[in-house]
Design brief:
The chain folds into three domains: 104 residues, no CATH class; 75 residues, no CATH class; 143 residues, 3-Layer(aba) Sandwich (Rossmann fold). It is built from 17 helices and nine strands.
Length: 353
């Protein structure tokens, strides 16, 4: 249907409303007196429904609305020639309730969601007509693998219902009572893990998971003075819940065994390094990130730390590297803290004395 045809239908719909309103003015006024919550259009629809189903049983009304339906006479430009079929009429609604339901029936929210999906996901964009004589459609951004479509739809649906806030600051799930708060990207990309720590046996300061960068481990092993050593000690004692990924453990080992990294001569041997790494792996929440955010940070070598934090649903990254002071890191709900800041927040220094 062309734009001119839609405009014509909208004009006819407006004329039909005004004509029926003039014809049934008295009856519509009486309905609005009995049901002041109805607007003029809803009251007119209620009168038309009452006229149609006045001498019909509830069962026949249910069958007629489900099969024959109702031709909507008040055309709009967005939805011309609209017809409605009510499949869930249980007979508990009067003509006023049916009128409100029919007047609010629209596929506009569905169209809006599809338009939003096309804007947000490049692969969902409409195909482009080519200049060939057969006017073939070229899906320039379409996925080669069709299995990607339902996967991205699932992610987008979760994002729309649980993470996308409206003007009122609430998500759709919050509006209908399914969620008490906002779901963050870290929860969307989180991966289930086996919990190795027993809260009844370990003294957990706070019920959070953190990710410790390699420079904190190095500083903690080089000197027993400072916040880095306090954090390392709390990791080994079980007082701090932390996550490790294979990439992060390998980086620990690679850096700690570099010549001169732990002093000259080194404060501990390679054998002792292996013992400490084994202990950290035993106490850690082990994760295996199944996604990649690379390139993400200004230093690509640290991207795997963010991936580990996201996979573990961690809240904090403790590092002495300012590369984590990145706006997209905070957008994922992650907080970057230095070793002194984290030790101060958890009051580790007082606990270690």
């Amino acid at each position: 249907m062309t734009n001119d045809e839609r405009s014509t239908m909208a004009r006819l719909g407006g004329e039909a409303f005004h004509a029926l309103n003039r014809e049934h003015r008295t009856s519509v006024d009486l309905i609005q007196e009995r049901h002041p919550e109805l607007n003029r259009r809803q009251a007119l629809v209620a009168h038309l429904l009452d006229t149609r189903f006045r001498d019909v049983s509830v069962e026949d009304r249910r069958r007629m609305l489900a099969t024959v339906g109702t031709q909507w006479p008040f055309h709009t430009k967005a939805e011309p020639r609209k017809s409605l079929r009510l499949k869930t009429d249980l007979g508990h609604l009067g003509v006023d309730g049916l009128a409100r339901l029919i007047c609010e029936a629209s596929i506009h929210p569905v169209d809006a969601w599809f338009n939003s999906a096309r804007r947000r996901v490049t692969g969902f964009e409409r195909g482009l007509p080519t200049a060939s004589n057969q006017h073939r459609i070229w899906h320039a951004y379409g996925f080669y693998d069709p299995d990607m479509v339902p996967k991205l739809v699932t992610i987008l649906r979760f994002y729309h219902n649980w993470m996308l806030r409206g003007r009122d600051g609430a998500t759709p799930a919050m509006r209908i009572g399914l969620a008490k708060g906002l779901i963050y990207p870290r929860d969307l990309f989180s991966f289930p893990w086996d919990r190795r720590l027993d809260d009844s046996k370990c003294d957990i300061i706070y019920n959070i998971i953190i990710v410790i960068d390699t420079n904190i481990i190095v500083s903690g092993l080089r000197s027993r003075r400072g916040a880095s050593y306090l954090i390392l000690d709390s990791m080994l004692s079980g007082a701090t819940r932390f996550a490790l990924s294979p990439a992060l453990v390998l980086e620990y080992e690679d850096v700690l065994k570099r010549p001169g990294i732990l002093g000259a001569p080194p404060s501990i041997s390679h054998v002792q390094v292996d013992v400490i790494l084994d202990a950290l792996c035993k106490m850690a929440v082990e994760v295996s990130p199944w996604f990649r955010f690379r390139p993400f940070l200004n230093d690509p070598k640290d991207d795997h730390v963010v991936e580990c934090a996201m996979a573990a649903s961690a809240r904090i990254i403790v590092s002495g590297d300012k590369v984590f002071r990145h706006e997209d890191v905070s957008a994922f709900g992650l907080v970057w803290l230095t070793a002194p800041d984290y030790a101060y927040e958890l009051n580790l220094e007082r606990r270690m004395k």
